[in-house]
Amino acid sequence: MQDRLSFPEKLLEAVEARRDEVTELTRELIRFPTVNPPGEAYTPCAEFIGDYLKRHGFGVEYIRGEGAPGDTDLYPRTNVIARFDGRVPGPTVHFNSHIDVVEAGEGWTLDPFAGVVKNGRVYGRGACDMKGGLASSIVAALAFMQVCPDFPGAIEISGTVDEESGGFGGVAHLAKLGYFSKPKVDHVIIPEPLNKERICLGHRGVWWAEIETRGEMAHGSMPFLGDCAVRHMGAVLQAFEDELFPALDAKRTVMPVVPEGARRSTMNINSIHGGQTDDFRPGLPSPNVPDRCRVTIDRRFLLEEKIEDVKGEIVSILDRLKRDRNRFDYEIRDLMEVQPTMTERDAPVVKAVAQGIMALFDREPDYVISPGTYDQKHVARLGHLYDCIAYGPGILDLAHRPDEWVGIDDMVDAAKVMAIGLNVLLRGGAR
Asked: Where is the Peptidase M20 dimerisation domain (predicted)?
């Protein structure tokens, strides 16, 4: 019966036969509590992936993100890259997944690191973001290699760290070393959870910055003798409410960002810190006028905006307050900036994955842009490789939430799409 199947059916059947494997592999990955920060269990998780792929003939390399934020001997930023070379030279397809997850947080009804299987789903922190996607990419590669043992080119699979905190110890570090540049790599697929019938072409831009207002310390019973930095920050936040947020809300983009609310400029106040007891909670209050107050802002901007204008909107408000408000002074520090990115729809990797979606679901894919950044930013800005997309199983809205899950059917379907994409990219769609 197997010999009478057509080529696409053989490939899909090879993936389907690994249904239990993708389920168990996802469960095993979830059981590594790779929580970031601080960066726990990175090395054992990377070694598990490396050992798994070694057994299937991949060459494996471990690269530590030395010098990256958070990298210490206690919490080394350990990345793994596995490579399988085909029988003849050809292009290289690279599947990149981050292995770090955010903290579990409250509200779980299941153990977040047990990898519980229930009602056709695998539950756990990182199930959809993105250990299910990593498992799907591995199964897709193994099924393709089984059906097409004479393929040209090479397949790479990486498990990288720190995506949840910017990716600097992971993909950024590797991109600086040339691991995401031609001629080493030609096509990159990042199995982020964007839903199995969508292709994510890129993301909005981001600027993270820290604003600090300054004051003068005095006794809390005589605040008139000091200068309250928190009150100065209150004036900043009020100006943002009155002027900046309405202006951002009016901006729109042609980028197909999902969800709909993210098709505009946004800014979040990530954190605010002020006063002498801020870092010692729970503790006794300090009877002091605070002389420092800091906020971290998370500004997401559009393809139509220039980064200098994005920054200028903030600085103009701060400068006006400095002119108009008695004793107001501030400092602003850049933390991170990333330009928006959007891969062209006619790029080879886009067309290859689109063929897989059309073959499996008999419909055109939805082409979307992510509201937040992911590691494609480093592939583009440091690797200068633009044939890169995000495609993977899982529902984006479940990421970082309690009782996070990924559907087993979705993982299998996504692996089938990836396997077809591999065939198009490495064999030209040969049957």
From this structure: 202-323
